[in-house]
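Why this split exists: single-chain examples teach little about how molecules sit against one another. For that reason, every record in the complexes split bundles all components of an assembly together and asks for one structure covering all of them. Below is a record exactly as it appears in the raw files.
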Amino acid sequence: MPPAGQSTPAGQKPEQHSAEEILLAFASAVRAAGVKVTADRARSFVDAVGRLALERRSDVFWAGRATMCASPEDLPAYQRAFESWFAAEHSAAQRLESSATSVTAAALDNDDGGGEGGREQLRALASRRERLRHRDVAVLDDSERALLHRMFEELPVRLPTRQTRRRHLDRHGDVDRVRTLRDQLRRGGEPGPLRRARAPRKPRRLVWLIDVSGSMAPYAESLLRLAHRVVEAAPRQVEVFTLGTRLTRVTAALRVPDADAALALAGRTVPDWSGGTRLGEVLRAFNDRWGQRVMVRGAVVVIASDGWERGDPALLGRQAERLHHLARRIIWSNPHRGKAGYQPLQQGIRAVLPHVDYFIGGHSMQSFEELLDVVAHA
Amino acid sequence: MTQTSISSAAALAEMLAATGYLADEGLATIGYLALSMERPLLLEGEPGTGKTSLAEALAEGFKLPLIRLQCYEGIDATQALYDWDFTAQILHLRSVEASGGAGMSVAELESSLYDKRFLLARPILKALQESPAVLLIDEIDRADDEFEAFLLEVLSTYQVSIPEFGTVKADTAPIVVLTSNRTRDLHDALKRRCLYHWIDHPGLAREVEIVRTRLPEVPALLAEQVVRVVQQIRATDEVLKPPGVAETLDWARALHQLGRAELDLASAAASIGALCKYREDTERVSAALSRMLG
C-alpha cells in the first residue's frame, strides 16, 4: 500500500523536466544496464528519493540501490549506470534525450505495467510479442530477435519429477496411521490431530543435446538460450551438450547468470559451430562417455536436431536405442516438425523415430513453450 | 509521531552508534528509508558482517522488544505464526467434564476452547500483537518457497486472520529486518517488497573503530594489529570461511583475556580458534601468521 502524503521533489517548470521524469529515466538506464527494474521498483525508487534530502548525490545512489537492486550481482551494473547518468557534465535534458531511445518497448516490458501513459505502448508491445511467439526464429531480423531473447527470460520452467520412496511429515499428505496412533498412545489414548505424511517428489535430471551443425545454424542460438533458461531454473539438475562433428559439454558456460555472457562463453567453448555432423557417431560418443554413468539413467533427454545425418542412419538408430534403454524419456525436437506439410523423410529421423517418446517441433517461441511443457510432464 | 519515527539518516546513524553499532552512510540511509516507507529491510552479505546485530541495535535504540524468528528448512506457518495449544484445550475439556459441565452450553464450551489463553503466539503473531516491535526474520534463505509466499502476505498487510479467533492487525507496522546468507535466491516478489542492502566487510579504519567501540577495554595497539591481520586474511582468497566482524571481536576479546597487549605469534596461535572455524583454515592462517608476525 502506498504511504500517505507521498512527496515528490518539486521542480516542474514548463520547459524543464520534472524530477520524477528524470528519476524514472534513470531507472530505465539502470534497466538498460542489465538490472531487472520492474515498474513497481521504479515507483519505489521515486518514492524513496522523495523522502530524502536531495542535496547529496549519495542519497539518490543509496535510494536507488535499495529499491532497484536485488542481489550482489546487480551492484556493479547499478554503480556503472549511476556514475554515467549522474556525471556532472550532462544536463538533465540531454540525459532524457539519450534515454528516450532506451525507454522504448524495453522500458514498458514488464507484467505490472506503467501508468496511464504507457498503456497504448503496452498494448502495441503485447500484440507485437504475441505475433513474435508464432514466428519462425530463423527468419527474424535483429530487433525482433533481441525482443525474443528477452522473452526467453520469462519462460516458465518446470522440471520433470520422480516419486521418492520415503515418507516425510507433510501437512498436505495422506493420513499417516502409524504416526497418528503413536501420538495418541503418547497422550494415553486421547484422540488428537491427524498426522499426515507423503513421499516428496524430486526433480529428475534433464539432459539437452543440441545439434549445432550447419543445417541447424538458424536455430542453435535460440536453442542454447532456451537451455540457458532451463539451467538457470535448476542449475544442478540440467546438463547441456552440443552435437556437431564432436561432442561438447557446455553446462558450465550456461551456468553464467547473464544470458548474453553465457552464450558468448558457450560459443568459445564449442569448436565446431555450423560444421558438418555425424549424429550417429557423436551420439555413440555420448553413450560411451556419459551413458554408463549416473547422468542419463532415469533422466529426461531432449535432442534438438533436424536429423540431417551424413553418416550411417543404422548407426544412429542403434545409438538412439541404447540411449532409450537408459533414459526415462527421449524427446526429439525438430525445427521443421512444426511447419506445414512436414513429412519425416530424412533417413536419420526415420531411424530414430522408433526410439523416441515424443517427436515435436521447435522453431518458434510457441513451440519452445510446448517443448518445455512436454519436458515438465515427461 | 510513533516511537519509530526518526528525522534523518544521520539521526539514525547516531542512534545506532549510541548502542555500539556503527552503520556506514549507505546502511543508515537505507535504514532510514525502511522506517520512513514502512518497508521491510532485506540484508544480505557474508556471515558475520552485522546483519543480525543491526536488528538488535534497532531494538535497543528505539527501546522496542526484539522478536526473532530463526528460519530453517521446512518451517511453516504453525511455527512462525500461531498454533493452538491442543493439550491445554483437552485438559480444559476434561476439567469442565469433571466439574459436571459447569452449566455451559455446547456452543459456549466450544468458543471457550478458542480463547486467547490457548493461542500459542509464535514470533510473527507476537510481533503484530506487541507492535511497535522489531521483528527479525533470520536466514530467510533457509526456509522454502511456500513459507516465503506466506511471509510476503503478512509483510504486505501486517495483519493475519485466524479463523476461530479473528483478525490480528498491527496498530503500527513493526520494523522488519530479514537476513539472508544467499544459500539460494529469494523469490522476486518478496525482494520487491523489501528494501535491499548488501553489507560488505568493513574497511580497516571502520573495523578498528568497531572493535574500539564494542571492546573499550582492549588496548588500541592490539585492536589495530588484530584488525590488520583479519583484513589481510580476508583479502587472500584462500580461507574457506572469511572471518567476519564477529570473529574479529571474538579474537580480540580472546587475546585480551589472555592478558596480551600486543599480538605475537605464540598468543595468536593459542587463540586462533576464535578466528577460524575450520581445521584447514586454521592451518593456512597459522602459516600466514608466522609470515606476517614471524
